[in-house]
User: What shape does this take?
Amino acid sequence: MSQTAPGTAIEVRGVTRRYRSTTALDGVTVDFAENMIHGLLGRNGAGKTSLMSVITGQDWPTEGEVRIFGQRPHENEQILPRICFVREEQRYIDDSLPKHAFAAASRAFPNWDWDLADRLTEDFRVPKKTRIKKMSRGQRSAVGVIIGLASRTEITFFDEPYTGLDAVARQLFYDRLLEDYAEHPRTIVLSSHLIDEIAHLVENVVVIDRGKILLHEPVEQLRDRAVTLVGRQEAVAEIAGSREVLHQEQMGRITRTTVLGALTQAEVQRVRELDLDLVPVSLQQLIVRLTTRQAASGDPDAATAGTHTDPQEVTR
Assistant: This one.
């Protein structure tokens, strides 16, 4: 395997993971740059957790190879303390209190910050004298979030542990994550199906569906990937031209059509002349449309056809 490229924290090359008759990861190849917040997005069962488990050395690939900062992570005492993996249903020692979980984390992660852990405990109103197994789902999620942030590991994976939080607590998590990331840059991977909620956080997006990578791009490049045109059918058809239609709704003579591909300045001017509405497509809408298209076609490369996405394949 080639040496890790400068600025690359994680390299995954040709990784397949099979569980008896199920293939969770199928020839996955993808990189995660260091000191960046990545969104690992996809439907439930797409392969997100399996990929993170293999990367963090908690599971072994059937085939392929993973490198963290140029080294294999599995049973590697030099690499594992530099990685924190917070799961949606994190397990803790029986009858442990939050302070016990935090103490164990402080021993596992050299960069652990007790001041941050204490402040977050107050912010999330975690009951200090309640055993974790007796806590509500939201409180248990808060414990996991605190460990993920206070560990300050060079690579941190959040496998949707914050979905147990209510809307106010999730926003608090997003705010605290950005604050601490600004002061202590590191590689953070957020696995989530709440795409629009984390869209403002992530700098790079990896989308997985049925064990394949549909997208692997910086968010800025995705913003103009698709557009929705609303207006008279013949006018919309003129602007859409030969672009691929991702979605279309008809209401009499008015059509609402989402097409793949950014518009030129001349086309934007023509949109005004035709009195069409130009509606931006959110990251969530784009991913839903692309995922739906792939499922309908049965072609694992359908979501990336005609785009600038690298033809890298990844799956859960």
The first helix runs from residue 48 to 55. Residues 300-316 have pLDDT under 50 and may be disordered. The radius of gyration is 22 Å. The CA atoms of residues 85 and 157 lie 5 Å apart.
